[in-house]
Amino acid sequence: MRVLVIHGPNLNLLGRREPEIYGHLTLEDINSMIEEKAAEHSLEVEIFQSNHEGAIVEKLHEHYGRSDYLVINPAAFTHYSIAIRDAVLAVGLKTIEVHLSNIHSREDFRKKSVIADIAVGQICGLGYRGYLMALDYIKEAE
Ligand code: DQA
């Protein structure tokens, strides 16, 4: 199984960014755990982070026919990016949406996800573990 993992805007600042909400681990720490878990499950993984909507859209296009699953934390784009939603639909990857925080217990504008209804499922509020659980799911589902 080939898995594309995408981290959206501001997630490069993890560790320093509102740690009471997003935790103390850096993106590098989380990516190392993702790579470890992927190796354990014999999943081929590519990890990509960008602060730019277009770069995320283009990364998705690159993976048309190249990956089986998408694990994505679209960050703020979750709440309004129709371009990312359309790109996910266009490339047809089975998608798991991940959020570190519980987007349903925060500001109202975070409760809406334009990705959730086209995803296999959404994991939120469990911190970095959400990414690892998504990989556990993919291993077990396939
Ligand atoms: C987030 C939640 C979003 O609302 C926010 O804009 C983020 C991170 C999360 O992982 O909890 O940047 O996706």
TrEMBL record:
Superkingdom of the organism of origin: Bacteria
A GO molecular-function annotation: 3-dehydroquinate dehydratase activity
Active site annotation, chain numbering: 22 (proton acceptor), 99 (proton donor)
SUPFAM superfamilies, per database record: Type II 3-dehydroquinate dehydratase
Protein name listed in UniProt: 3-dehydroquinate dehydratase
Enzyme class (EC, first level): lyase
GO biological process, one term: chorismate biosynthetic process
Gene designation: aroQ
Residues reported to bind substrate: 73, 79, 86, 100-101, 110
Bilayer-spanning residue ranges: none
Role, per record: Catalyzes a trans-dehydration via an enolate intermediate.
PANTHER family the record matches: CATABOLIC 3-DEHYDROQUINASE
Feature type site, description Transition state stabilizer: 17
